[in-house]
Amino acid sequence: MTLLEEVAQLLEDLGLGDYRGDGSLGGTIFLGSLPQDPDLALGVQLYGRGESDSLNSHDEPGLQVKVRGPRLDYRVGEAKAQDVYSAIHGLGRRTLTGGTWLQLVIGINAGPVPMGRDVNDRPEWIVNFRFDIDRLTANRS
Fold first, then answer.
1. Beta carbons of 120 and 68 less than 8 angstroms apart
2. Which site among 11, 49, 53, 70 is 20 to 30 Å from 77 CA-CA?
3. Where are the beta strands (DSSP E) in the chain?
4. pLDDT tens-digit profile of 106-136?
5. Count of domains in the chain?
6. pLDDT over threshold 80, residue 55
7. What residue numbers bound the domain in which 85 lies?
8. Is residue 104 part of a domain?
9. DSSP, res 42
10. In this structure, what CATH number is given to the domain that contains residue 119?
């Protein structure tokens, strides 16, 4: 299971949306970019951060949650983005579904950042985090 899948499942477990790992219709949490529908949706993706240690299993990947809201009510998407920040910032000391140890999640910004509107005039926000995780690999313990 990838880290993105684990985070998508975590978002669902926290009541922030519906993740369909099998790709079936009806979900609201997606890996990578957002599909055309539904209007209210969350996309999780990794982004580059600093260098990793080659000897221990601790990593600090950057993770971004993109939130899109309906065109006619700006408040809906903004509230969902704030819910994501409130639920994840400061969360830690738990094992994610795929076995990754989540030590701590830190919000990079002081909350959601508005990103303007998509091509269908729907408002979008991003919420950036640093995930402090431990994942064993063949070369690190």
1. no
2. 49
3. 29-31, 41-47, 58-59, 62-68, 92-95, 101-107, 113-117, 123-134
4. 999 999 999 999 999 999 999 999 999 998 7
5. 1
6. no
7. 3-134
8. yes
9. E
10. 3.30.2000
One-letter amino acid of 89: H
How much is the pLDDT for 83?
98
Backbone angles phi, psi at 83, to 5 degrees: -60, -40
DSSP secondary structure, 51-75, as one string: PPPSSSSEE--EEEEEEE--TT-HH
Question: Is 139 among the domain residues?
Answer: no
Q: Is residue 64 part of a domain?
A: yes
Distance CA 10, CA 63 (A): 13
**Distance of alpha carbon 132 from alpha carbon 105, whole angstroms:** 6
- 87 occurs within a structural domain: yes
User: By the 8 A CB rule, do 67 and 81 touch?
Assistant: yes
pLDDT averaged over every residue in the chain = 94
Find all residues with CB under 8 Å of 15, minimum gap 6, and list them.
Answer: 87
pLDDT in tens, 56-92: 788 999 999 999 999 999 999 999 999 999 999 999 9
CA distances from 43 to 18, 51, 140 (A): 11, 25, 30
